[in-house]
């Protein structure tokens, strides 16, 4: 399962050069270790400058990551990492800014900030670690937890809908949306490389196992014995084929309903299958694919969407430039004083 990547520069830094030296404190066996390892490998391949790179996080297990990277970092408050990233991006266009969040941090209290960073096409990279549980606060139900999930906060089972992170991002018309898995390291690294190359917002959902509070939530996607039958790798311009033997596919049936077929059965051929187009101007196909969920369908991994659009911070810079030409350079002191002032004189009571 590969994700095509852009050409890489000559590497001078090694993955270990991006390790901060701080003790990594996640639970033994946590999927976050794999994400951290592949992130350092990707940064090494790109030869990223640590002095020009910033990781911003909120609250949660995933939000520890800035401590472990030898870059600049901000450990913010719950859900506010996209807001902090917005301010930093507007102030420092020279920096490479990465937001690290989780399904609870990013989609619950931080949902509002996340969707606005996405719809503005802010030039940042967002890594959302999805373990379908609140891990740091000891196993409460999260926005991505499945229906009837029994947790300490829902002892009789959760009720209500389940948020699909990629669907949310595509619904906000993110210009880059991808999904990958912690325990498929090569695919994870290549997906990070693709996101790093994108100009504009890049949203990556990472299936990440919490072996303490939600162990095996993504076993269908990590078990080598079954994952080829449960995942379909998205590759631009290629048919949606999957399965251990490469003999299954997805076609569009009546009513725009995706159908799983076995090639050769009932006359089904590769020419009947959906062809992935990550560069389509409309997000419709990407959204349809994001709705495919196990066990009814194989779940797509890879890049759903990769398109170009005006970038928010560049639009703001252009607006400021035009206004400066029209109105002259801004005078901060005059702005603070305001157009009118009042003087309050002391007097007797």
Describe, in plain words, how this protein is organized in 3D:
The protein is α/β, with parallel strands linked by helices and 349 residues long. It has two domains: 15-235 and 278-312, Rossmann fold (3-Layer(aba) Sandwich), CATH 3.40.50.970; 239-275, no CATH class. It is 30% helix and 17% strand. It contains twelve helices and eleven strands. It has helices spanning 32-46, 65-68, 81-91, 103-109, 111-119, 165-171, 185-197, 219-222, 227-230, 284-290, 312-327, 332-337; strands spanning 53-57, 72-75, 96-102, 125-130, 176-181, 202-207, 231-234, 241-242, 248-252, 258-262, 299-306. Strands 2-1-3-4-6-5-11-7 form an eight-stranded mixed β-sheet, with helices on both faces. Strands 8-9-10 form a three-stranded antiparallel β-sheet. Helix 7 links the parallel strand 5 and strand 6. The N and C termini lie far apart (81 Å). The model has no long low-confidence stretch (mean pLDDT 94).
CATH class of the largest domain equals: Alpha Beta
CATH topology of the largest domain: Rossmann fold
Overall pLDDT metric: 94
Helix count from the secondary structure assignment: 12
Major sheet: 8 strands, mixed
Strand content: 15-25%
What assembly state would you assign to the polypeptide chains in this entry? single chain
Global outline: globular
What would CATH call the homologous superfamily of the largest domain? Thiamin diphosphate (ThDP)-binding fold, Pyr/PP domains
CATH architectural label of the largest domain? 3-Layer(aba) Sandwich
Intertermini distance: 81 Å
Report Rg: 23 Å
Low-confidence stretches: none
Structural class: alpha/beta
Helix content: 25-40%
- The total strand number stands at 11
SSE string, helix = H, strand = E? HEHEHEHHEHEHEHHEEEEHEHH
Number of domains: 2
- Spatially, the strands of the biggest sheet line up as 2-1-3-4-6-5-11-7
């Amino acid at each position: 399962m590969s994700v095509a990547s852009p050409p890489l520069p000559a590497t001078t830094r090694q993955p270990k050069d991006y390790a901060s030296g701080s003790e990594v404190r996640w639970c033994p066996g946590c999927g976050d270790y794999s994400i951290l390892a592949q992130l350092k490998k990707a940064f090494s391949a790109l030869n990223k400058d640590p002095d020009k790179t910033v990781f911003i996080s909120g609250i949660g297990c995933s939000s520890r990551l800035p401590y472990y990277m030898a870059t600049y970092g901000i450990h913010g408050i719950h859900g506010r990492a996209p807001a902090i990233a917005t301010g930093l991006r507007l102030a420092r266009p020279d920096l490479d800014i990465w937001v690290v969040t989780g399904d609870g941090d990013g989609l619950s209290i931080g949902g509002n900030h996340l969707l606005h960073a996405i719809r503005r096409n802010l030039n940042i990279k967002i890594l959302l670690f999805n373990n379908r549980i609140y891990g740091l606060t000891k196993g409460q139900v999260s926005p991505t937890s499945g229906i009837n999930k029994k947790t300490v906060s829902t002892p009789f089972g959760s009720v209500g809908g389940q948020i699909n992170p990629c669907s949310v991002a595509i619904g906000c018309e993110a210009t880059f949306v991808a999904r990958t898995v912690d325990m498929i390291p090569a695919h994870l690294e290549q997906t990070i490389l693709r996101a790093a190359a994108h100009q504009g917002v890049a949203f990556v959902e990472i299936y990440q196992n919490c072996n303490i509070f939600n162990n095996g939530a993504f076993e269908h996607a990590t078990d080598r014995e079954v994952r080829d039958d449960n995942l379909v790798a998205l590759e631009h311009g290629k048919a949606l084929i999957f399965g251990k033997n490469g003999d299954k596919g997805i076609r569009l049936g009546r009513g725009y309903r995706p159908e799983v077929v076995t090639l050769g059965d009932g006359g089904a051929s590769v020419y009947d299958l959906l062809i992935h187009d990550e560069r389509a101007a409309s997000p419709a196909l990407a959204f349809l694919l994001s709705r495919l969920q196990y066990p009814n369908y194989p779940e797509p991994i890879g890049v759903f969407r990769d398109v170009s659009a005006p970038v928010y911070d560049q639009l703001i810079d252009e607006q400021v430039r035009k206004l400066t030409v029209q109105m002259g350079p801004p005078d901060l002191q005059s702005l603070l004083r305001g157009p009118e002032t009042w003087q309050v004189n002391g007097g007797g009571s």
